[in-house]
Amino acid sequence: MSSLRLHLWIAEGEFSTSVANASWKPVITVSHSDPKRSVSTSPDSVSFSGTLVTGPFWNQYVRLSVKDASLTAADVSLQLFNSSSATPAAVLGTAVIPFGKLQRGAPVGFKKFTFYDEHKQMIGLVRLRAQLQYPQSVVIPPTSTSLQSLGHFRHCNNHPEILLGLTGLAGFKKKDTLRFKVSCGKDVVRLENSVVAGDVQIQIDDPTAFTCKTASFPIPSSLGDDMKLHDDASRRALLFESDWQHYFWVVAETDRLEISVKRKNIFGGYERIGTVAVHLVNQGREYAAETVTWR
User: Fold this and answer.
1) What is the residue range of 230's domain?
2) pTM of this structure
């Protein structure tokens, strides 16, 4: 589960004849922190300009979940393989994108990154664009400019992803201990920790609280009764900075995204008390309606 995504548009490369040959199908694999969690370009989509095998064109878009965006986060690793090799593919070269350049969330590129072999010898360059997306990143529809520069990039990820945020509750008993699970097809996300409703839910004084924007957030009981925050702005800031705020990505494998709520019973177990089903259209790219089922 991760609330950050690294977007990469991998354009083309220039390589020496020490790695390029007439039959190779170069693949770029991208990873961050954990090599086991990686994404790769598709070997079937690489092309060349005539017989110039040293200059592959990928024009592919890939995305990768990022779990660590701290000041000490590792650099992004790029590895070059030859997918047409008869033997298990060996790493031909590596390059890095300094994470400090991505941390602000502003796009980097299109820039050329240098690949080196195991002997630290330069073997080529790859031109790409990269951007780290936070939950707070402003996302706008494509413009004519972005379509012109990015529209021809092929998407290697099979399904779209939905950025889902659980930011507040209302209507539960204060003592209710709750757990949440989100699923969309085979992709299932379980929130690791339970939450006490009284710590995070919105206080509603009248039915028009949401529409009139007068709902206020409570002071988490875990902070003690002596903490005085009377103004609504302070309460909102407190909740928005709390660890319970969850933003994460869900792969839209089907047209139904389901959020299930479980409540702790007197025996210490959890039982389902409700479900919110969000119905999607256009292959998971648009919201259609929602169905709430409550026990």
Assistant:
1) 162-294
2) 0.68
